[in-house]
Amino acid sequence: MRRELEQKLVEKYPQLFQDYRKDPMYPMYYGIECGDGWYDLIDKTLARIQQEIDAYPEKDRNRFKLFQVKEKFGSLRVYMSETVGEMNKAVNDAYTESLVTCVWCGSQEGVTQNEHSFVRSMCPQCSVEYAKNGWELNGEF
Ligand SMILES: [Zn+2]
């Protein structure tokens, strides 16, 4: 994901991104590892998770943080230090919706899992571009 988009999420959810760019031993150091097309989906998912966290007393909130957010086998994976109740549902919904959301442009029209080099959820147009030019076009993931 482009750095400026990622930065918007970091500023919006400081609680969740407390390990962001802190320690290269942990995945959160490297930020969000997927295409820009999933920005809205991730934003929506983190909002749901944050809402759950906010229901806890302030002293108990810090234990909930993102461990890793990445694309894997054409789907969005959100891994947290700990998830309970509705947080699990938000994470599972994100996975399901990512399979019908183009990882490059966010379109939900005709998205399928292509297998040019490895599996990636894409709309027909992006899939053609991807086949022609490879992932470099969308960079950074
Ligand atoms: Zn697309």
Q: Can you describe this structure?
A:
By secondary structure, this protein is an alpha+beta fold. It has one domain (3-101). The chain contains 4 helices and 5 strands; from the N terminus they run H-E-H-E-E-H-E-E-H. Helix 2 runs antiparallel to helix 3. The chain binds zinc ion. Zinc ion (ZN) binds at residues 102, 104-105, 107, 122-123, 125-126. Zinc ion binds at residues 102, 104-105, 107, 122-123, 125-126.
Quick description:
With 141 residues, the chain is of the alpha+beta class. The chain has helices at 3-12, 39-54, 86-98, 124-133; strands at residues 32-33, 66-72, 75-80, 112-114, 120-122.
The tally of helices reads 4
**Quick check: average pLDDT?**
92
What would you call the structural class?
A: alpha+beta
What share of residues is helical?
A: 25-40%
Low-confidence stretches: none
Strand-helix topology:
Elements: H1 3-12, E1 32-33, H2 39-54, E2 66-72, E3 75-80, H3 86-98, E4 112-114, E5 120-122, H4 124-133
Parallel strand pairs: 1-2
Antiparallel strand pairs: 2-3, 4-5
Helix pairs in contact: 2-3
The structure holds zinc ion (ZN).
Features:
141 residues; 3-stranded mixed β-sheet; globular; single chain; binds zinc ion; two-stranded antiparallel sheet; alpha+beta
